[in-house]
Amino acid sequence: MSDQVLVETPPQVWTNRTFAGRGYPRMRAFMRHRLALAGFIVVLALALIAIFAPVLAPYDPNAVDLFATAQGPSRAHLLGTDDIGRDVLSRVIYGARVSLSVGLVSVTIYVAIGMVLGSISGYFGGWIDSTIQRFTDAVMCFPSLIIIIAAVAIIGPSIYNVMIVIGLLTWPGICRLVRGQILQLREREFVEAARALGASPTRVIFAHLLPNTIAPITVAATFGVAAAILTEAGLSFLGLGVQPPTPSWGNMINTAQSAAVLQNMPWLWIPAGVMIALAVLSINFVGDGLRDALDPRSAHR
Amino acid sequence: MGRYFLRRLVISVPVLLFVTLIAFTLVNLAPGDPVTSMINPATRAELGPDWVKERQAALGLDKPIVYRYGIWIKEVLRGNLGYSLIGGQSVSGQVGARIGPTMLLMASAIILGTLIGIPLGMYSALRPNSWPDYLLTIFGFLAISTPIFFLGLAMMYIFAVHLQWLPTSGMRTLGKPKSVGDLIQHMIMPVTALAMIHIPLVMRYTRASMIEALRQDFVTTARAKGLREQWVIVRHAFRNALIPLITIIGLSLPEMLSGAVITETIFQWPGMGLLALRAVNARDYPLVLGVILVTAFMVLISNLISDLCYGIADPRIRFK
């Protein structure tokens, strides 16, 4: 990177200064934000690719060309074609739509559930709180992928069902986060003031408490989008997510489970895998940058 | 100590109740019932609707769902998880046969991940905000962002297909006598793939926990006494930094089990993940329910154990 950064590299001497963790916070913050910025640009680019997929894709992603099956990358097909002659690049471009929409929709569903349950739990306390908390503990006991594949198998695999199932089964994290925040906030004067003015619990929760939890929720939701994209990819890889012929990065890699594809047609699965990793990594970088920006305590660690 | 553990134990009773309730509800949402799904529609038409009702009554399917839940719980408590729709083997027997390989895979991945993650986290914590720390942070992000199936396939492509150093799948080489060396060869890739879930988690926690420990007053005291820096780090800071790490295994187990489904599928490892996937694909609901229940139970138990260990290692926890 730039010279300035190299100059700031701490000396490799074990001094108390480095041990205390106060060393060179600026460099870390700077690099972090640089990563967040790079991540944001990539996410933005992916969003544009998803939106303008029909314009950008050189071919129809589902167009079968039996004269050009299983071809390696060439000028006509930059990432080659699959075993029935569909253009891989076009399918990768359309795959961005699936990943991003599953990420956004499922996180919206579970943030809503988590916020409602978490605020009820934190605000009312008592047996309501302990019941909701034990229920949350129970949901967290299930390994997410195992219960999600079971649920998807029962209600049928499709992109909408994947969104719904991820949304319905991954809210406990948000629920705990919101509950913790509300527990701290509800003792504050402004809440007391609102109550004294005769505000109903619903009004106190939605107008006074929840707006104050937006920052940590935004951070958690960003990481959540990344996790949901990984889950969708995993489900589609296992054949229980987005169903062919709709292209998704996960179901494109599914074909590599056959030894012939794995060995002889790497262009079929490597681009999709790289795209998943790139999308998830970028979103995680954005989340990390947001955390530093929104949570003053973690900023200079 | 006894009271602390008793409290944890009492709390997990309603959790277990909710776990069974969720699993039972989920599987009962499945379309169709055992009678109509097991009998050929033509035969069923011949036998008439009365016969179907009779069979349903015999299986208790005409009872309200709450009542059926009661019967089911009673059987589960006796260790009877029901019978597979396909083949009719007992679910507990099938799950039992698969637990061993999954445990072997996960235990190896957890041990490997911990052994790699702790030194890396320590290294970062001792030089916070340096280039190595920065690179390790990026590595951590890469590890959590790369889908485990892509990593697994890439390893298989490189090490099994091209270099042919390692076997592609399974737990043993067919036709060869059982040997530990052969088993280890089959384990290398799945364990590495699975350990990639654990390493970043351990690394991040070690780093944070070590930085926190180095800020504590007792470290300042130890330094003020004139102890050598290495001694302060190893005997004072590191020991205390390790305590919160106990909870990590309990925390990462659900994710490891999720990862096991994919790892076992790629490498055809004969464990519970592969069993779960086969059950789901065959719509074998009693088996699905069995796997869900057993894995959730494993997570619950491991959470209890890590709570217990935490309580032993850090007495302050017991009085919170």
Describe the structure in your own words.
The complex is a heterodimer of chains A (about 300) and B (about 325). Helices cover about 70% and strands about 0% of the residues of chain A. With about 300 residues, chain A is mostly helical. The radius of gyration of chain A is 23 Å and the shape is elongated. With about 325 residues, chain B is mostly helical. Helix content of chain B is about 80%, strand content about 0%. Chain B contains 13 helices and no strands. Chain B is globular, with a radius of gyration of 25 Å. The chains are: A mainly alpha (about 300), B mainly alpha (about 325). At the A-B interface, helix 2, helix 3, helix 6, helix 7 and helix 12 of A face helix 1, helix 6, helix 7, helix 8 and helix 11 of B.
Q: What are the defining features of this structure?
A:
heterodimer; A: 301 residues; mainly alpha; 16 helices; 0% strand; elongated; disordered N terminus; B: 320 residues; 13 helices; 78% helix; globular
List the helices and strands and how they pair.
The complex is a heterodimer of chains A (301) and B (320).
Chain A: H1 3-8, H2 16-19, H3 25-51, H4 53-56, H5 88-124, H6 126-141, H7 144-155, H8 159-169, H9 172-185, H10 189-196, H11 201-209, H12 214-237, H13 249-254, H14 259-264, H15 266-294, H16 296-299
Chain B: H1 2-28, H2 34-38, H3 41-59, H4 65-77, H5 91-126, H6 131-145, H7 148-162, H8 180-215, H9 217-224, H10 229-242, H11 246-267, H12 272-281, H13 285-313
User: What would the principal axes of the Cα set say about the shape of chain A?
Assistant: elongated
Coarse structural class of chain A: mainly alpha
Number of DSSP-assigned strands of chain B: 0
Total DSSP E strands of chain A: 0
Helix percent band of chain A: over 70%
Largest sheet properties of chain A: none
- Major sheet of chain B: size, sense and barrel closure? none
What's the order of the H and E elements of chain B?
A: HHHHHHHHHHHHH
Provide the β-strand percentage band of chain A: under 5%
Terminal CA distance of chain A reads 22 Å
Counting DSSP H or I runs of 4 or more residues, the number of helices of chain B is 13
Radius of gyration of chain B: 25 Å
Kindly report how far apart the N and C termini of chain B lie.
12 Å
Radius of gyration of chain A: 23 Å
Q: Which residues of chain A form runs of ≥5 with pLDDT under 50?
A: 1-23
